[in-house]
Write the structure tokens for this entry.
Amino acid sequence: MRKPIIAGNWKMNKNPEETQEFLEAIKGKLPAADQVESVIAAPAIDLNALVWFSKDSDLKVAAENCYFEDEGAFTGETSPKALSEMGVDYVVIGHSERRGYFHETDEDINKKAKAIFRNNMLPIICCGESLETREAGKQTDWVVAQIKAALAGLTAEEVSKSVIAYEPIWAIGTGKTASADQAQEMCHAIREAVKGLYNEQTAENVRIQYGGSVKPANVKELMAKPDIDGGLVGGASMVPDSFLALVNYQN
């Protein structure tokens, strides 16, 4: 049985003081770690505060990005080695905003996935199609190609531990949400792709999130689908009460 994973993605929001205030507001209110994995992905400047103030809690910490080299002359980049040493658990890679605004390629994302595993963290690998791709009926081929490229060279054991986040670009920050059936259809296609690349057990192990205007009002319907194991949540994760409603969706 795959453990549900609800991850908030704050994007470029909140400072360290606001991070502390948020964590104080959710303290002692998260579901048990064996029921739901609760994660916050925060900007790099907030990670130290997030790690520090989430100690002795069930909250996992994610970075929103990293570079694929551990160190060197890469001004402005974030070292995966340093993230691991800080106590970060996950790194989000391949988000559509990184692909679109910063021109990250499938090759970049694959290198980052390998760097994350090399440094004993786990990747949350994002994938998703544009509205134009969906309207052309090519969404499944597009997303499966992203998955194949992102996982190239990873072992079955590594993929089993990974998280894949399906985020249709047309549903991110727009208020539009893929229907639960649309989300399930693509998450199932991703699981089938992993099965074809590796084996049935690896496909059964990998956790697949849906992201794109997930909120307390629709999280239960999405989580009821057999191939949806969690959510990668933007705006609804930045308010303590809303985040708590998401991670405690089973109650």
Notes: The domain at 5-247 is CATH 3.20.20.70 (TIM Barrel). The mean pLDDT is 96. The CA atoms of residues 46 and 180 lie 33 Å apart.
